[in-house]
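Working notes for the structural subgroup meeting. M.R. asked for a predicted model of this chain before we commit to crystallization trials. I am recording the input and output together here so anyone reviewing the notebook later can reproduce the run.

Input as submitted:
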Amino acid sequence: MSNSRVMDPPLSATVRSADRIETAFVAGEAWAFEAAYVNYRRLLYGAAFGVLRDDAEAEDCVHDVLLRLWRKGHAYSPSRGSLAAFLAVCVRNDALSRRRKQSNRVRIERERIRPGEGAQAAADLAIAEQDRIETALQSLNDSQRDAIRMAYYDGFTHEEIARRTGEPLGTIKSRLANGLRVLRAHFAARGEGS
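Returned structure, recorded in token form:
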């Protein structure tokens, strides 16, 4: 009778305690990344799959996050909580970024010119939409406008915006939320959808 249970990948050394893995992870030891994957892969995959709802995308997300953290080094500090929680948050944030980028691609594809439509009419519509958005963006203060552009035009995550601006993550999140609230009010006052 075959065993359908998924087997853990082999680890070059015995699976180590969470404390040892965290210490080695902080030190950037290569075995710690492998051990973190072995010990936490189900948790990390679950975090990614919960957002992406695609097996291959979730696996890629987990792999990419661990690889990025290994290359970056010193991203984790025990003062930020457990390694498992830190990794799960990193994977979830990456999955959310992937989903947002995928949603933007789908939206752009839907908005493309349909066969038979005049190219000039479509270009005029795109220019009018751009003008409408730029006018709405002028209702924001400079910091809100910059944050909105970085998040929605450049596709940066909240963490990336905070690093680029040198401001706390909470400030960036508040700025984006307030900016979106102002934009919704702007469009609502004109009877337009956002």
